[in-house]
Design brief:
Elements: E1 3-8, H1 14-22, E2 25-31, E3 39-44, H2 45-55, E4 61-65, E5 70-80, E6 87-94, E7 100-110, E8 121-124, E9 128-134, E10 142-145, E11 154-156, H3 157-160, E12 167-168, E13 175-180
Parallel strand pairs: 1-4, 2-6, 7-10
Antiparallel strand pairs: 1-3, 2-3, 4-5, 5-6, 7-9, 8-13, 9-12, 11-13
Length: 181
């Protein structure tokens, strides 16, 4: 399992995190059912960026804190600066391997919609599915076959939720994609 070194932080607030960011660190918080209290942490920005490129958003990794604590975590949320487009804060969730968690997993469409072969246009309405799954079984992507979609057809959660091996939390009437004229 990939790991990263993290540091606990005592000082909280805007001024404290601004100083951390100016020194090349990324502030964050770790929470989870197996923790008594949330842990306020920070990371070397470049090391965390490399970690994200390796594991992505939903993969487990080990967090080694400077106080000797080792936690299995995954990225729950990353806050991005809207102007500079860099990370400014990260939320991590600490888990036990078989603990159920709620995550958003990207959708990957497979096949070619038959409606596109007769002039229809395929339009994607949803980019990820919110699922409940064991932490050690989080998929990288959820593949959905669109081969049967004809012009005028839409793919809706209730039509595919039985074909997906995870508990889908999105509303049943949410449109995933469709083929339109």
């Amino acid at each position: 399992m990939i790991s990263i070194k993290g540091f606990t932080r005592e000082k909280l607030g805007k001024e404290a995190v601004s100083k951390l960011r100016s020194k090349g660190f990324l502030p964050g918080v770790v929470y989870g059912k197996n923790l008594k209290n949330n842990l306020h942490v920070y990371f070397n920005y470049l090391e965390f960026e490399k970690l994200i490129h390796k594991v992505g958003k939903n993969k487990l990794f080990e967090l080694n804190l400077d106080n000797g604590q080792k936690l299995v975590t995954f990225v729950k949320d990353i806050q991005i600066d809207p102007l500079k487009r860099n990370m400014i804060h990260v939320d991590l969730q600490s888990v036990l391997g078989d603990e159920e968690v709620t995550v958003s997993v990207p959708i990957e469409f497979t096949g070619v919609a038959k409606g596109t072969k007769v002039g229809g246009v395929f339009r994607r309405a949803l980019w990820s599915l919110k699922i409940k799954v064991k932490a050690n079984e989080i998929p990288e992507v959820i593949k959905i076959d669109i081969s049967d979609l004809d012009v005028g057809d839409t793919l809706v959660i209730y039509k595919i939720k039985d074909k997906i091996p995870y508990k889908v939390l999105n509303h049943e009437n949410t449109v995933i994609a469709g083929v339109y004229k």
